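Here is one record:
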Amino acid sequence: GLIASFFVAFAMVIVSFSCTGPFVGSILAAAVTGGLALKPILGMFFFGLAFSLPFVIFSFFPSLMKKMPKSGGWLNVVKVVFAFILLGFSMKYLASVDAYFGLGIITRTLFISVWIVLAIMLGVYLLGKIKTSHDSDTPHVGTFRLILAIASFSFAVFLVPGMFGAPLSSLSGLIPPADESTFTIGSGGTQNTASQSGEPTAGLCGPAKYSNPKHKAPHGLASYYEIEQAIECAKQLNKPVLLSFKAVTCSACKLMEATVWSDPEVLEILNNQVVIASLYVDDRTELPVEDQVTSKLDGKVKNTLGRKLRDYQLSNFGVVSQPFYVLVDHNENVLVKPIGESSKAEFLKFMRDGIAKFEASKVQ
């Protein structure tokens, strides 16, 4: 009925918001910060067009509806398969909530364990060993179902090494990152690349303000968590600053760090040639009064670290999406065009060009 339709639509909005939010947010940011007025208009037009196009096509060509396959037992199998997939993705959203509030309940090991169980159950279902009340009798397993079952079991096997410290880089945007609770084979126990305070110290000019064990930089990299302190350290070391705007719930950020930042060439630059500022725009840390700022955009006081950093990103670059990387000098002047999610080659070029420009400015 109408109530069921409402809740289905409501659930779809909640699930899809994490994907559409950055896109729509960037468009709205462009509208707020000014610039080309046509850009946000076209952006929202095509965004709405993508959602409405299927309905428009069927309204103009209703005969196409007759050519669509009829429902039956096969459709119930499709629904059950997608139900398993949605259960898997629900873990991702629960993990994001857990990470945002810093609860530490959904660990990497627990997350992967649930996915392994779901993958095995899906494979067993596809083989016809588990049935729902709406399933038709399956006298034999078809080729396609058998292939899907094998793929499901293979995925479960693929996940097993992740329980013991394997990086699973291709899934790093979905699964929680490894932490001290992650058992790593060959490391003699739990993984630990940090100092006793829970934070890497090599390369830092001093203790990082607002450091948080839940927010530490990947691969044992040293980092600051606010711009001012990173700039001061960069002046002492005579290096440029990499502003890395990110969020604990940002899947693309985790994927970048797992697949691009882990490259030896990139790591060498990050370790030795720049000062990193890991700027978590969703950090809920309350700021002391002297560190709070009043936004030039909305006139509101930004009283948490995340709100302050998000306002800085929007005010200076007109962007609210993450990851977002900016190389700046000691006066916060942008050295090269900022970059977002990118390939290894693109990120290396961005870093090398920015560092080269910084070095050239020192000679002048």
Summary: The chain has three domains: 2-67, 73-171, 213-363. Strands lie at 183-184, 189-190, 241-246, 275-280, 293-294, 301-302, 324-328. Residues 2-67 form one domain.
